């Protein structure tokens, strides 16, 4: 509840333009002490905005410039974009995310769809978010952790906000050099070793099939792997179940 309340307060900040008296002018444009690439613009009435220095320069901001309603709106937009961009950078610093997930995070933070889209565009152009690379990295990590079929990989990628087409492509790329039956056999053999000695054959079959299906292997591969393991087929590698 407290986190939602904080998010709500951030989503509705006070508009500095409300503090502007008639014919208000810019009083100062000073670089941020912690980040020289950003500046704080102060105006009459105590109004202030913090934004990217390049945006400030493009607006021609300097002491004495009259803050018209149009300029005040532009300052508010630039300040929102700057705040959203900094939040997005902090978010992806801790964990890579897809464009869709980043847009969702910015929306929950209270930023408009337009600001969120511009931030995502900026980070994508800089290579800081890349759905294709993220999808391939996640798919490789999933397979390295434990054998998996394409259905599970695609499902997990979609949960991370990866487009269905990219998810399919990443799964196909990662699995291209792997034999799904060998992967399923590897997983089934490991799973079978955990079964109690007195477990009935039908129960073994159900549990093995379920374990493989949950890891995303297609029905045919599941069935073949289960039959080989239950029959104690040595398989291609000369291993016994």
Question: Could you give a quick summary of the protein structure above?
Answer:
The protein is mainly alpha-helical. It contains eleven helices and three strands, in the order αβββαααααααααα.
Tell me about this structure.
The protein is mostly helical. The chain has three domains: 2-125, Arc Repressor Mutant, subunit A (Orthogonal Bundle), CATH 1.10.10; 131-175; 180-230. Helices cover 59% and strands 7% of the residues. The protein contains eleven helices and three strands; from the N terminus they run αβββαααααααααα. It has a three-stranded antiparallel β-sheet. A hairpin with a 4-residue loop joins β2 and β3. The longest helix is centred in the middle third of the chain and has 26 residues, at 69-94. It is rod-shaped. 26% of the residues are buried.
């Amino acid at each position: 509840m407290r986190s939602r309340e904080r998010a709500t307060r951030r989503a509705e900040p006070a508009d500095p333009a409300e503090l502007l008296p008639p014919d208000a002018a810019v009083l100062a444009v000073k670089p941020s002490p912690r980040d020289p690439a950003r500046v704080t613009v102060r105006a009459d009435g105590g109004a202030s905005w913090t934004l990217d220095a390049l945006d400030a320069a493009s607006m021609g901001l300097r002491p004495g410039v009259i803050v018209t309603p149009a300029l005040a709106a532009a300052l508010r937009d630039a300040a929102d974009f700057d705040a959203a961009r900094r939040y997005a950078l902090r978010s992806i610093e801790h964990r890579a995310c897809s464009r869709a997930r980043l847009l969702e995070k910015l929306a929950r933070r209270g930023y408009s769809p337009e600001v969120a889209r511009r931030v995502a565009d900026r980070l994508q152009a800089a290579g800081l978010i890349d759905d294709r690379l993220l999808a391939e990295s996640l798919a490789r990590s999933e397979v390295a952790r434990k054998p998996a079929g394409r259905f599970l990989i695609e499902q997990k990628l979609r949960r991370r906000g990866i487009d269905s087409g990219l998810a399919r492509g990443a799964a196909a790329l990662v699995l291209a050099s792997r034999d799904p039956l060998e992967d399923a056999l590897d997983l089934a053999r490991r799973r079978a070793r955990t079964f109690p000695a007195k477990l009935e054959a039908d129960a073994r079959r159900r549990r093995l099939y379920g374990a493989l299906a949950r890891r995303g292997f297609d029905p045919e591969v599941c069935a073949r792997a289960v039959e080989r393991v239950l029959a104690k087929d040595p398989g291609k590698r000369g291993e016994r179940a």
